[in-house]
Amino acid sequence: MGVGRIPGSVRQYVSGLCAATLGLCAAAWLTLAPVAFGYRSARTGSALPGLTPHSSALHSSALHSSALHRAVLADWATGAALGVVSLATLVAWVVAWRRRLRADGVVVPSSRRHARREARARRRQDRDGVRAADVAEPAAGPPAGDEPVHEEPVHAEPVYVEAVPQPRPGGLAAMESVLAGAELLMVACGEEETW
Amino acid sequence: MVNRGALAGLAAIFAIGAWLVAAPFVLRYQPAGARWTDATRLDVTVGAALAVVAAAAFLTALAGRIGDLYAQAGMRNEPGTAAE
Asked: What are the helix (H) ranges across A37-57?
């Protein structure tokens, strides 16, 4: 993707997102308008604003009432449909833009779940390493004869691997701690791959 | 990259805007020959704005999509990549 193509490419996504957002706002307005403008509560009113005073007879009032009822129903139904369509459109544009950004390499395809899974796997590896070291040590009293060997959990409580090592005596100890903390933060934020 | 669903959504928003403009006359809550009521004014204004914005966004997205297709075709026809 060339640099010169970026504005045009972004423009289409922005315009789609703006139209969908405007649709959502219009849906909200259409839902609220019958109440806000008062033509819902004025359904049983006597005269239409546009009619001449002598035409506001009882018959006309009934017609007016049913017409306003139809208007309120139309606004609400249209507002609901517009809300659903606008939301779906907004989601579609967001997905399309994300896909484009990933394809262009602007966004690294890494998810928080993926980073969490990798961190968990690494913790498990560390724990298994500790457990293997414990098993390799000679036990105090090995089970004699044909007693079944009960493999007790070596560490019932979780092993907490020190995330930020203690500063070692040396020149770059503080820097090592900072780097370890930053790595932990990147893993938690799902940016491990970029790290 | 722009999928058809996104473009169809914009077309649907345009259609809803057009329906809002026509609704007072189709559903007859605007009396013929009378001044426009509040409901009619509101529906026509909102519908027209919606239709204009949705049409502009649709055309912009379509132009971008066609531009992408042209760019892809140009990359395919480059001398270095054509032989592969």
From this structure: none
